[in-house]
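Re: that chain you flagged

S.,

Sorry for the slow reply, it's been a week of failed gels. I finally had a moment to sit down with the sequence you sent. For the record, here it is as I used it:
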Amino acid sequence: MNILVFGDDLTGCNAEAVLFRQLGWQAQTLLRHDQVLPPRRGVATIWNTGTRLLPPAEAAQRVQALMRRVLAEWGTDTRFAKRIDSTFRGPIGAEAEAMLKLLPERAVGVVVCAFPASGRTVRGGRLYVHGVPVDETEIARDIHTPVTSANLVELLRQQTSLPVLSLTSAEVEQGFSAVAGRYSSLGRERLLVICDAETDDDIATLARSFATWPVPVLPIDPGPFTAQYFSALAAGQNRVFLVCGSPMPTTCRQLDYLETRLGRELIRIHPMSLVKADTRAESLQAYTAQVADAFSRQQVVGVRTDGVACSGGRAVDVSEALAELTEAVLKTVPLNGLYVTGGEVAYEVLHRLRAEALEPIHEVWPLCILSRVVSGPYANLRVVTKGGSVGPESAVYDSVQVLLSGA
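Prediction finished late last night. Pasting the structure tokens below so you have them in one place:
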């Protein structure tokens, strides 16, 4: 996905970029609204429009002009979001309406003004800052953009001509059809929806629910919902391949846990069939076909060799054979993520893929690192490498979730 988030000030844009990075995405912040737009496809770009203090009409005009430019240069498949102040300052309604007007008529702007890590929560459609209604805090006396009500529906209706609905988390979880059955305008015209959220789990649940809606969604929030929403979308599309060549009991337990969570087994590899000269070519072709067939039905496919013991030089031969299998799979199936267990296996796989360097992105667990391949034919492939004897029982499962949710 190509993702473009408009933010109205620089500090907020940087905060948004970090949230994407923490979920395993590449991200960049553009400092000025008038700069040249770099063609970085597949990167979450947060663009500082500098509109926080502009009059509503001028702010709307600027973001709409920028959005038209992005659509022309990046294509109509670009996904958009609006990063807003966590205390609801600025011409939010005007900018949201301007952006929605360039999306299909059924588009929904989803406002989740919660940022629990910063003490911002929304309950009953009212915004609280560390438990205090926002209009009873210093924000009410802001010299530029005072917030005079904690009622988000009331505030938004003062700023836009679009319909504004307030939905509970329970309503959103029921799904689009159930909600649309109660609100006739939903799915028929552009509108804004305000949602409650008091915890990060609330936000993640909302994101997963909205990712299933059959209408265009424009996330409008201080950051957490946008990052979670696009991660939820990606998780429904990405493909992840696991290469598990470590015989360590820790890894075996982690793979068993993964299989339990997935509800299916990984492909058991008899490693010596890939090593012996008389069976190598046939086995490589057969395993590659088996992996490709599995990917036609599911997003996560993996191979594990821990059922057969190897030692000494043969273990090195197995690592090289697994590397050859990985390359064959990558030539057959478009992948978004690769997970590799075992130091020697990881080296041989990356060497076979002609990766010269890795850019570390995120530590899933200590000694379990998400990185990006920097150069070579598989540049930008996201890879998690993990030592065989490290990590909790959920380490492999957690790694897969990170790979699924990123760009």
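What I noticed first: The first strand starts at residue 3 and ends at 7.

Talk soon,
D.
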